[in-house]
Design goal:
This protein has helices spanning 34-44, 87-100, 133-144, 170-173, 190-201, 218-223, 254-269, 288-304, 337-344, 354-357, 379-383, 414-421, 424-433, 441-458; strands spanning 10-13, 19-20, 26-29, 47-50, 56-60, 71-75, 80-84, 101-102, 105-106, 109-113, 119-125, 150-154, 156-157, 160-161, 206-213, 275-279, 308-312, 326-329, 349-351, 399-406. The chain is of the alpha/beta class. The protein folds into 2 domains: 10-113, Chitobiase, domain 2, CATH 3.30.379.10; 119-437, TIM Barrel (Alpha-Beta Barrel), CATH 3.20.20.80. The chain starts with 9 loop residues before the first strand and ends in a 13-residue tail after the last helix. The model has no long low-confidence stretch (mean pLDDT 97). The structure holds acetamide.
């Protein structure tokens, strides 16, 4: 009961009331709660009945909670009850229940819980190195355990275009044909991508697709010469991009806007979530006046598709972005006038300060993988800030949430993804979910050490940070 990550709002352990699973234990649910019960049953190797009579009973009841993602969990000797107002709330409660389970016993007591921020995300860069659908699903499973609810996919960059666009097929077949270091590469067909989005949705994780424009576009430029200002296609870039921002779509050419319209239309059709991410970072190769005209034409395309725009915080350098546009701050300063004025005009923001949550930074000097341009970022650095007070002029109410990006230039395999993501994403999850009053490094470090065997059981290649006394 006292080891849950992220820390719940309220916990009352009652060890004498622990519940023991038997071969006869069933989990009950009705309606939209049934898929959540099935998820729990699969994890505990028990069965589901439709109704209300299970020894483990999941109930949809809006009156039981004060937040759409909130839940109440009571574990007693005879019965376990979990109530929430939505399937997402039940799913969050199930993650807590699973952390209370060990050796067929669910620790007794009571939990009341709800999230602090709406957006609790991780980003995976599949452009610099490609990851298979099976690998990304594995990543999704691990995000879900910590109540993370957004997976941002960096689908396009200089080194690879990873999603099939049927009206521009060479993006995938040419632009997806390689990766950092050459060879390899790959792309998701639209069916692959739909499958991935549905898998995440079943775990209450929304996928935010990023099509990074107008810079970071060599893979697209390599696929279609007409997208280049000089009409000449370069090769797909296979370097690491230690110098970034050297490519640009031909923002002065009409074909570029036909391209953007087609790509965004196809990606929007694959996206049940509210947001399309347009990147817009590091446009050093795009003249600023052309960049502004480009955004002035492209932002309305997203609105016309019924979606809202996310972008790196450089998106704030646009003429008059819709108030729904969410800038994702990846800087290191705690003050940025553009962010403060965005908030003043009613925009909400996503925080990803690089020296706190960039998962491609090394944990400590001497690691073979990772960068250190934002410093080394060990678990205590990830944990040791407050998104609600981090930026001047950005009060907690203006913070949509936090997100930890994992850029993949230096990673060698999916095992490296896990090493860079875990345990740091557990700290991100606690910052995103738990009330500030629960923030306590010593408590978190102890709970994280206790979580290690669960990662071992899942075969997760987590980094054994020297800051944690792993068992
Ligand atoms: C970024 O790191 N260029 C968003």
């Amino acid at each position: 009961m006292d080891a849950i990550i992220p820390a719940p709002v309220y916990v009352k352990p009652v060890p004498a009331e622990s519940f023991t699973l038997t071969s006869a234990t069933v989990v009950s649910a009705t309606g939209a709660g049934v898929p959540v019960a099935e998820h729990l049953a699969a994890q505990l190797d028990i069965s589901v009945v439709e109704g209300t009579g299970g020894a483990i009973a999941l109930t949809l009841d809006e009156a039981a909670v004060t937040h759409p993602e909130g839940y109440r969990l009571c574990v007693g000797k005879e019965r376990v009850t979990l109530a929430a107002g939505t399937p997402a709330g039940l799913f969050a409660g199930v993650q807590t229940l699973l952390q209370l389970h060990s050796d067929r016993v669910i620790a007794g007591g009571e939990v009341r819980d709800e999230p602090r921020f709406a957006h609790r995300g991780a980003m995976l860069d599949m452009s610099r190195h490609f990851y298979t659908v099976a690998e990304v699903k594995r990543f999704v499973d691990q995000l879900a355990r910590f109540k993370l609810n957004v997976l941002h996919l960096h689908l396009t960059d200089d080194q690879g275009w990873r999603i099939e666009i049927r009206s521009w097929p060479r993006l995938a077949t040419v632009g997806g044909g390689t990766q950092v270091g050459g060879g390899g590469g790959g792309y998701y067909t639209q069916d692959d991508y739909r499958d991935l989005v549905a898998y995440a949705a079943a775990r209450h994780i929304t996928v935010v697709p990023e099509i990074d424009v107008p810079g970071h576009t060599t893979a697209a430029l390599a696929s279609y010469p007409e997208l280049n200002a000089d009409g000449v296609a370069p090769a797909v870039f296979t370097g690491r991009g230690d110098a970034t921002g050297f490519s640009s779509l031909a923002t002065g050419k009409e074909v570029t806007y036909r391209f953007m319209g087609d790509v965004l239309r196809e990606v929007a059709a694959l996206t049940p979530g509210e947001y399309l991410h347009l990147g817009t970072d590091e446009t050093h190769a795009t003249p600023e006046d052309e960049r502004l005209r480009f955004l002035d034409r492209v932002l309305p395309m997203v609105a016309d598709l019924g979606k809202s725009v996310m972008g790196w915080h450089e998106i704030l350098r646009s003429p008059d972005p819709p108030v729904s546009t969410v800038p994702q701050y990846w800087g290191r300063a705690s003050s940025d006038p553009a962010m403060a004025s965005a908030v003043a005009r009613g925009q909400r923001v996503l925080l990803s300060p690089a020296h706190r949550v960039y998962l491609d930074m090394k944990y400590e000097p001497g690691m073979e993988i990772g960068y250190d341009w934002a410093g080394c970022v060990d678990v205590a650095d990830v944990y040791g800030w407050d998104p609600g007070t981090y930026m001047e002029g950005v009060p907690e109410a203006a913070v949509l949430g936090i997100e930890a990006p994992l850029w993949s230039e230096t990673l060698r395999s999916y095992a490296d993804v896990e090493a860079m993501a875990f345990p740091r994403l557990a700290a991100v999850a606690e910052l995103g979910w738990s009330p500030r009053s629960a923030h306590d490094w010593d408590s978190f470090a102890r709970r994280l050490a206790a979580y290690g065997p669960r990662w071992d059981a899942d075969g997760v290649n987590y980094h054994r940070s020297a800051q944690i006394r792993w068992r």
